[in-house]
Design a protein that fits this description.
The chain contains 13 helices and 17 strands. The chain is α/β, with parallel strands linked by helices and about 450 residues long. The protein folds into two domains: about 130 residues, 3-Layer(aba) Sandwich (Rossmann fold), CATH 3.40.50.720; about 280 residues, Dihydrodipicolinate Reductase, domain 2 (2-Layer Sandwich), CATH 3.30.360.10. The strands form three sheets. A nine-stranded mixed sheet has the order 16-15-14-13-7-12-11-8-17. The radius of gyration is 23 Å and the shape is globular. It binds NADPH dihydro-nicotinamide-adenine-dinucleotide phosphate. NADPH dihydro-nicotinamide-adenine-dinucleotide phosphate binds next to helix 1.
Length: about 450
Amino acid sequence: MIDRLVVFGGTGDLTGRYLLPGLAALRARGHLSDGFELVGASREDWNDEQFRSWATDWLEREAAGVDANTTSTLVRSSRYQRLDLGDPARVTACLAGEGPVAVYLALPPAVFPIAVSALHQAGLPAESQVILEKPFGEDLESARALNRLLAQLADERHVFRVDHFLAMTTVQNVLGTRLANRVLEPIWNSAHIDEVEIIWEESLALEGRAGYYDHVGALKDMLQNHLLQVLCLVAMEPPITLGERDLRDRKVDVLRSVRPLEDDDVATRTRRARYRAGRAGDRDIPAYAEEDGVTPEHRTETFAEVALELDSWRWPDTTFRLRTGKAMRQDRKEVVVHFRPVPHLPFEHPAGPLSNRLRFKLEPEGLTLELTGSGPSVSSTLVPLTLDAEMVPPELPAYGRILLDVLTGNSALSIRADEAEEAWRVLTPVVDGWSRDLAPLQEYDAGSDGPSRR
Ligand code: NDP
């Protein structure tokens, strides 16, 4: 197990909000060795004490459930290193120590190639790991170029491309429910499933993240990575094991099977929009175009939807609709599996809903099966039956799981190089088509259910 974690971008939001609480959870459950060391590195001119005080503040806010002794042990095991990626001596100083190290690039994506080259120049100790956050590249070409750089730096088994959705218990539950029960797998195909919706809609608006988001937008921020990963788990063939090769081979099969989108498909099967001013709950939300730091001419979308089809034996006739949006009426984060209607309904004049859906609720967690039963008059009244399953709370937060995998060298949940490129292949026609306005940029009121269907 590696016991040194160096975070480039160690003073950023990701480090404070997720990596430190993830480490605290690992420390609390005894997963970190006594000799574990955390090195935070960024361009800030800080000393160790400033970094420790900053880390303590974040841990008080984001890891309130972990006892103070544990968090202070973690903080004491940290140090700070000023980083200049153009100065090999500074990069080497970050890596100083015995044995392999895990280097987490919690940096703006544009800096990934510079950081990888700097590490290459500095020389990584043998058996070290490199971890990259999403988005991995900004298009197929840049993802390929980054993969080539990484291949010079380290063997693929030491490269971790993070998609924290894969480490969410609720997302993993899609696989557990599918593969550990006899009842679902026989009907898990186009003969029985009409449509699958993969939805991540949030009531939160931009929340001051224009510097990043305005260059990226909903498609590249959420759909190209997180939602495509969920699609893989929903649609994959059962893997032989959940080991890194089997699991990732089956996921890549799904991405490879996505039918390429032609111009007509971009026009009819995708939607993009950005929010106008509106009210969500008790909050007034300004129009996206008027948020601080936004350049309206970027025409960045805050809502994206893409309906995909898979060319495979299992899924010839099922639509997979992936949708994400900001400043929506409510948080709605779920996978909804819509079963087809029964072939024959022996009721005279059935009244009421005919629901037949399975919902994997991703946040907050839950699993709901919506069926239809008969009401007081068996011949004509149908009633909804809803079965809610309770889920076991996760042992580790998603970033705790990711960091544990990194430190122990388990790459099953990391995105493989070919997978990262396939994900871009799927959505490149959408990026290109939107740049040519094949789908208009619609508008929706903040606090609404999104743009109208075209
Ligand atoms: P922030 O802007 O909050 O932090 C970026 C960090 O990188 C800072 O520590 C910054 O410090 C450092 N940095 C920036 N440029 C350089 C440079 N040239 N050399 C050295 N250090 C640099 O971003 P986030 O923490 O939000 O995001 C980091 C990564 O994590 C991104 O790839 C993002 O997409 C991803 N991510 C973020 C999530 C989040 O909720 N925050 C969620 C999922 C992924 P300084 O400027 O002082 O050098």
